């Protein structure tokens, strides 16, 4: 029941953000995106961003952030991803719901290149 309740809360967020962006579209398109939103969605380590996408492959969702309208529509879309995750958690086969990165690891994708593995080993042992 907890996942169902969480799904309902996430749907409420989708509806709330959707209504907000539709009622304020023109003004939001004229306002710049905050620096923190630009950094979160466009740069830095997007590993955690991908980790919370359960209905898409890793790196398939890279929103365009050009103004405040884009920020709020992207937040709305994030909430929809949460809805999908909460829905997936309620299915009987959900014991194995995986993020894209976890699915890639389970499929045998190397966590890093062999050269990185050697470099990491050198750092750990102090050997060169």
TrEMBL record:
<keyword id="KW-1133">Transmembrane helix</keyword>
<protein>
    <submittedName>
        <fullName>Uncharacterized protein</fullName>
    </submittedName>
</protein>
<keyword id="KW-0472">Membrane</keyword>
<dbReference type="GO" id="GO:0009916">
    <property type="term" value="F:alternative oxidase activity"/>
</dbReference>
<dbReference type="InterPro" id="IPR038659">
    <property type="entry name" value="AOX_sf"/>
</dbReference>
<keyword id="KW-0479">Metal-binding</keyword>
<keyword id="KW-0249">Electron transport</keyword>
<dbReference type="GO" id="GO:0016020">
    <property type="term" value="C:membrane"/>
</dbReference>
<feature type="region of interest" description="Disordered">
    <location>
        <begin position="108"/>
        <end position="128"/>
    </location>
</feature>
<keyword id="KW-0812">Transmembrane</keyword>
<dbReference type="GO" id="GO:0005739">
    <property type="term" value="C:mitochondrion"/>
</dbReference>
<keyword id="KW-0679">Respiratory chain</keyword>
<dbReference type="Pfam" id="PF01786">
    <property type="entry name" value="AOX"/>
</dbReference>
<keyword id="KW-0560">Oxidoreductase</keyword>
<dbReference type="GO" id="GO:0010230">
    <property type="term" value="P:alternative respiration"/>
</dbReference>
<dbReference type="GO" id="GO:0046872">
    <property type="term" value="F:metal ion binding"/>
</dbReference>
<comment type="similarity">
    <text>Belongs to the alternative oxidase family.</text>
</comment>
<keyword id="KW-0408">Iron</keyword>
<keyword id="KW-0813">Transport</keyword>
<dbReference type="InterPro" id="IPR002680">
    <property type="entry name" value="AOX"/>
</dbReference>
């Amino acid at each position: 029941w907890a996942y169902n309740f969480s799904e309902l809360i996430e749907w409420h967020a989708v509806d709330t953000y959707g209504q907000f962006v539709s009622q304020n579209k023109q003004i939001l398109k004229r306002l710049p995106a905050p620096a923190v939103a630009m950094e979160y969605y466009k740069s830095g380590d997007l590993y955690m961003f991908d980790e919370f996408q359960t209905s898409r492959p890793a790196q398939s969702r890279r929103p365009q952030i050009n103004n405040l309208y884009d920020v709020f529509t992207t937040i709305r879309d994030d909430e929809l991803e949460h809805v999908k995750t909460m829905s997936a958690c309620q299915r009987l086969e959900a014991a194995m719901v995986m993020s894209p990165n976890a699915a890639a690891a389970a499929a045998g994708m190397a966590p890093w290149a062999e050269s990185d593995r050697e470099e990491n080993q050198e750092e750990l042992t102090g050997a060169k």
